[in-house]
Amino acid sequence: MPVFDPLLKAADLTDEWEGLSFAKLSRNLQQHLTLAGIDDVGTETRYLLAAVFGEDVWQKIANPTQFPQNKRLEELSQLVARRLSREPLSHILGEKGFLTLDLKVNSNVLTPRADTEKLVETALEMTKNQAAGAIIDLGTGSGAVLLAFLSERPNWTGIGVDISAQALEVATHNAKTCDLTDRTSFICSNWNDLPALAYDMLVSNPPYIASDELAALEPEVVQFEPSVALDGGKDGLDAYRCLVAIMQNWLKPQAGFALEIGHTQAKHVTEILRNQSHFADLKIHQDLAGRDRVVSGLYEPK
Ligand code: GLN
After folding, report:
1. 185 alpha carbon – ligand 1 mean position (Å)
2. Which of 90, 98, 110, 240 has the most ligand 1 atoms within 8 A of CB, as the residue to mutate?
3. By alpha-carbon position, which residue is closest to atom 5 of ligand 1?
4. At what angle do helices 41-53 and 70-84 cross, to 10 degrees?
5. What is the pLDDT of residues 106-165, one digit of tens each?
6. Domain check: are 44 and 164 in the same one?
7. Residue 73 sits in which domain range?
8. How many domains does the structure of the chain reveal?
9. Alpha carbon of 64 to ligand 1 centroid (Å)
10. How many whole angstroms separate alpha carbon 231 and alpha carbon 288?
């Protein structure tokens, strides 16, 4: 049974693993991940082993006569040492699944969360009777929301806006691998400098964590994800105040919008929206865990 050692190096792991069967290696790996405070160790072990030994590593684990090669153990130890230092699994693997898509991710973008699937579902539901149209995604990051929407709406086009050029490199790569380049464009811009243009749908997953709550998030988030995608200012609501003041610049009359929110922010965000008389039909939508996650509405100019 391994013991917790914050200074553990990749070479220490390979020493420890020498002579272990695949089954014992898998158990040892789970123990190390647990000691490092990681939650879903079964799934993570599977992904890490599969990254080095291939998807069929389970057959090897089930066979007690199978032993890994030392060279492969060295490769695995590099990945595991990174994970034990709490680098996100998505950064180590370089990708993350989001709805039907496999997306490239790195430290320049927020790793897409399962919670954010609700944002895509809401946008799809709101536009289900519009065969064609154009969507704008403000703060697109990896492009996850925009690309997941467009992959379900073959006659729509979309634009992703982000202030980070490095994030847009990732989004552009993802548009290519999802085969969506012909219907997607990206602009590197501040929201305030964006030219006004009328879209049929607007989505955004803006930064919404209160600045002084950031440090309390898991190390994977605090140390490895871009704070520009997370930090919503003093009360976490800065981005909504900014969006709500200028969102009508990009909406056709009767066009919909859907904004991801932190699970305690529904009341505040709807209040900010209600202060503008031209937003109607405000609704709050829950994520899979039953927590408030999205606020939607329509642009109804008077
Ligand atoms: N849901 C993310 C988190 O809690 C935050 C995303 C955001 O600020 N848009 O890590």
Report:
1. 24
2. 110
3. 230
4. 140
5. 999 999 999 999 999 999 999 999 999 999 999 999 999 999 999 999 999 999 999 999
6. no
7. 10-85
8. 2
9. 43
10. 24
